[in-house]
Amino acid sequence: MADFDAIYQDEVVDEVLEEVVALAPEPIVIRGAGNMTVFGLSNRFNVEFPAGLVSRVAPEEFKATIQRINSVLKKTLPLNVKWLFCGCICCCCTLGCSLWPVICLSKRTQHTLNKLLEWENSHLYHKLGLRWRLTKQQCDSNSMMEYVLLIEFVPKTPIYRPD
């Protein structure tokens, strides 16, 4: 008699998933290209079109997205720098509490960028099999962390039909 309560692992599904994961290329990393960084977030990103996106997205669309990101950074980071400067001057008197406004403003900037990337993904990039994210990565030259734009290739999952 068959054991109806037993759970068996389907080996074919695992093989298909491993093939899908193996087919996705490495994500494209876009590092900050500005001359000023506040808490790891650069004041601008480079609009140069990466070679890995050729035939996936139009260079104009890529440039427009980067320009929207840079416009958000252009509006928010100068205020963050002013608060950081004031916070550093008053840091000894306030026992570090004067740095809280710049930390909150930095979090708000990250949140705004994440919302913008979410909108871009839902309106254009998900249809093209791409996903943009703002993520922290370690710098190549030292142990500091920086925020980078990560463009991931979303694999299209094949429909599994048992024979």
From TrEMBL:
Segments passing through the bilayer: 83-103
Annotated localization: Membrane
Pfam families, alphabetized: Erf4 (PF10256)
Domain Golgin subfamily A member 7/ERF4: start-end pairs: 43-132
InterPro entries, A to Z: CHIC1/2, Golgin_A_7/ERF4
GO cellular component, one term: membrane
Domain of life according to the entry: Eukaryota
Keyword annotations from UniProtKB, A to Z: Membrane, Transmembrane, Transmembrane helix
Protein name per its UniProtKB record: Cysteine-rich hydrophobic domain-containing protein 2
Gene: CHIC2
